[in-house]
Design goal:
Aldehyde Oxidoreductase, domain 3, 11 helices, alpha/beta, elongated, about 290 residues
């Protein structure tokens, strides 16, 4: 079965580099409003609070962005389900320092918690059927590692991180190669031990691919009946039980039940990252 490396944690150097990039983008070190209005020796006390139920993702982010606070207490770990009006973290520190970083902190934590929250909704539905909920490469440019980590925190499974981690042959690759057979032959000639997965949308494509050999199929935009037929065909081959099968295309929380008990291994959902809504989190302050 195809399995890719899971993003179970964010490397410290990656977080440091990204947060500095975000702060520079916002000119946090030249926050004119804060510099004009707030004395440089003013201390601020405050907290970060959820305003809706959410799956939290951002512990390391908060810890990095507010690293110079005199006091910083983060009450939850990534992946925990938090009710509305939960105090996520409390802090005491320099007012200028905190105010100039507020928006960057909220932007990224709201975004990642949004990804984790919608992933949990899908994962909870699929769990009893032993079906994995996969992310895709439909991520926000520059945020892929963050967003795939958020998927993991929400109970999802990471598909390939990038184009180098595995081969996924799609319709345009087939067209450019001339046929499914030729695309698979070409892929096998330089696979270097990487898994080869093929996107298909009909039974004849599966039959052709099984003659050459493949590690997995992505069943694209197939309905329940077509999916059941495709799985039955794949599993009928001598090595069919070892082939990874995922469904994809137009699957959402309303129709995902149609794909349970079909025999597939996973469902890939681009909406986990490209359509996730940022959750509602805010920061409140008290000046000392």
């Amino acid at each position: 079965m195809i399995e890719y490396k899971q993003i179970t944690e964010l490397p410290e150097n990656y977080i440091n580099e990204k947060i500095e990039e975000f702060l520079r983008e916002d000119f946090a070190y030249e926050d004119i409003t804060t510099l004009a209005c707030v004395p440089d020796n003013k201390t601020i006390r405050g907290y970060i609070e959820s305003q809706s139920e959410l799956v939290f993702c951002g512990n390391q982010i908060i810890r990095k962005i507010l690293s110079n606070c005199n006091v910083l207490q983060i009450n939850y770990q990534d992946g925990e389900l938090l009710p509305r009006n939960t105090i996520i973290a409390t802090f005491i520190g320099n007012a200028r320092y905190i105010l100039s970083r507020e928006r960057v902190l909220l932007n990224i934590v709201q975004r990642l918690s949004g990804v984790a929250t919608i992933t949990r909704q899908f994962a909870d539905k699929a769990k009893k059927y032993n079906i994995k909920i996969l992310d895709t490469r439909k991520t926000t440019p520059g945020l892929r590692l963050f967003e795939k980590y958020a998927v993991y925190c929400g109970g999802g499974t990471n598909h390939r991180l990038n184009l180098k981690e595995g081969m996924l042959i799609k319709d345009n690759h087939i067209t450019a190669s001339g046929s499914i057979t030729q695309a698979l032959v070409n892929a096998k000639s330089m696979a270097l031990g990487l898994p080869i997965e093929l996107e298909v949308d009909n039974i004849e494509q599966i039959k052709e691919a099984m003659q050459v050999g493949v590690d997995g199929f992505l069943l694209d935009n197939m309905n329940r009946e077509q999916t059941i037929e495709a799985v039955k065909l794949i599993r009928s081959y001598p090595n069919g039980e070892q082939i990874f099968i995922e469904s994809s295309g137009g699957i959402n929380l309303s129709n995902i039940d149609n794909y349970f008990e079909t025999g597939i291994n996973a469902i890939s959902i681009g909406a986990l990252t490209h359509s996730a809504k940022s959750v509602d989190i805010h920061m409140e302050f008290e000046f000392e």
